[in-house]
């Protein structure tokens, strides 16, 4: 299907992650059109970003310059141009501190939003600050913790509209490496986690952090000796890793409301493990939060420029 | 250099792991010659094992059949032929329970030694039983724990010449995947661990098991924000993983003598972390233990056949 030609968007919203580039043609908060490509940050050199962007948005451009508001790994040190990290505690977004890459096409006014940093323990995030801003635009009075599972899971403490602090866990990436590339690939591979096995293992690991290092190889041995299935192995591995994450993140969820925002299947695992551990946890569809955050940023820029 | 042609070994010793094949021409316990190739189990289909063996030993063979005593992953389910697992507690070796693959060349009498298994927690080992037998042939009165670091680290409780039980940790494989393939590759890669950073992190993780999941991503952030070097990152990652292994393995080392047998550099890390944690730990060169174990097996076979 060919997209209808759209002319004259007020501004363009861009979510530019490691593997995907998504763009929206916007009039205020209204979406006129949207497109995406696989030209993520990870596949581009600095010279490649402007052409990759134009490939998707050129026919939206008229004669006037258009603001382009971008978030995500596009602003990493290995991206288009490094955007700063704003130190927490702070509001999730300050679009006036966006970084402006030099562009050859005069119709593009690109703003790359800053990420967030934390000194102790050292931590950084990029892209999630825009999701958080989108969440707070819709839930301005929220007090509690946001849990954003994915390749890296971000736990973010929110109070009075500010990000107080946050903690990143590499659980998703560790799971992918162990299930597909370690000796456990012979047991697990791409199998989907069995929920009973997941909940049993996450309860064990959430109360005994030794379980995660000690319980990995027994998954292979149990497949060889006891006929553990791939789905049970996937459930136990995921449970051991997420359970030990919950144990280490306990101060972030034990006495406050938690909202889990991420892909539905992975979020359901976190929700199940958190609820089983006694947390006040709620799952939320986060599909549109990035756009809501980019819209809040565009609105702030318009008010001040 | 061309090896001198050796004829008439009494028997042939074979250490056949996942990545390497090593063979020795033996007269009793005397080594006449030795060779190796990269035809490990991982690169062979079942039909490939006999040719890979003959490639190294054919010119050692005369007219008479020669016993070939083999240990290691050659006996895995995905190896030449599956050799059994003997359930612990038991002696490390019982060569009479070796598995005999069918061979086309009548001069080869191949014996693949059994591995060891444990029901609870489920665990298996293959190859290390022969190193353990070699160690016990030289230290028959040893009581304590053997720690065999490597891709997978095996902790083996020894009493009265028997293997009472054992526990496998995937620490080496987890380190390799995280340092070379996760986001931490941008910080660590192939850097060698800084010892001070290693000892600091292993002490933290040995006393607080939450450190290992919580401390991974901060290594990347500390490199971005604080100039953490690759060597410091390698030391901290190794320390977090080995420290959490020590915490989980505490019952295996806290009240007994530990002998660490493995590659010198990795063994030195385990020795440093164990000593710092108060263990009675000793490092030992294990280079010849497999051959000592295979020799003990050959001697037992000769006595009984």
TrEMBL record, chains A, B:
It comes from Paracoccus broussonetiae subsp. drimophilus. This is 2-dehydro-3-deoxygalactonokinase. Gene3D superfamilies: 2-keto-3-deoxy-galactonokinase, C-terminal domain, 2-keto-3-deoxy-galactonokinase, substrate binding domain. InterPro entries: DGOK (IPR007729), DGOK_C (IPR042257), DGOK_N (IPR042258).
């Amino acid at each position: 299907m060919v997209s209808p030609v759209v002319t004259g968007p007020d501004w363009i919203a861009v979510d530019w992650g490691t593997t995907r580039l998504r763009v929206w043609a916007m009039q205020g908060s209204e979406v006129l059109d949207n497109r995406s490509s696989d030209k993520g940050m990870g596949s581009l050199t600095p010279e490649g970003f402007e052409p990759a962007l134009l490939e998707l948005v050129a026919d939206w451009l008229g004669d006037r310059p258009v603001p382009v508001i971008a978030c995500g790994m596009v602003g990493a040190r290995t991206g288009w141009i490094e955007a700063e990290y704003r130190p927490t505690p702070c509001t999730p977004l300050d679009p006036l501190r966006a970084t402006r890459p030099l562009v050859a096409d005069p119709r593009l006014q690109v703003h790359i939003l800053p990420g967030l940093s934390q000194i102790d323990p050292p931590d950084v995030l990029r892209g999630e600050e825009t999701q958080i801003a989108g969440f707070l635009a819709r839930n301005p009075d929220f007090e509690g913790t946001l849990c954003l599972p994915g390749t890296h899971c971000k736990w973010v403490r929110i109070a009075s509209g500010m990000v107080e602090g946050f903690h990143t866990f590499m659980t998703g990436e560790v799971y992918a490496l162990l299930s597909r590339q370690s000796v456990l690939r012979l047991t697990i591979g791409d199998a989907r986690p069995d929920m009973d096995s997941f909940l049993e293992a996450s309860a064990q690991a959430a109360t005994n952090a030794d379980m995660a290092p000690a319980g990995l190889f027994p998954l292979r041995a149990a497949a060889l000796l006891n006929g553990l299935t791939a789905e049970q192995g996937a459930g136990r591995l995921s449970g051991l890793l997420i359970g030990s994450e919950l144990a280490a993140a306990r101060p972030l969820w034990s006495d406050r409301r938690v909202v889990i925002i991420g892909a539905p299947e992975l979020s359901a695992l976190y929700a199940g493990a958190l609820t089983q551990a006694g947390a006040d946890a709620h799952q939320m569809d986060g599909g549109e939060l990035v756009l809501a955050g980019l819209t809040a940023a565009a609105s702030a820029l318009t008010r001040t420029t």
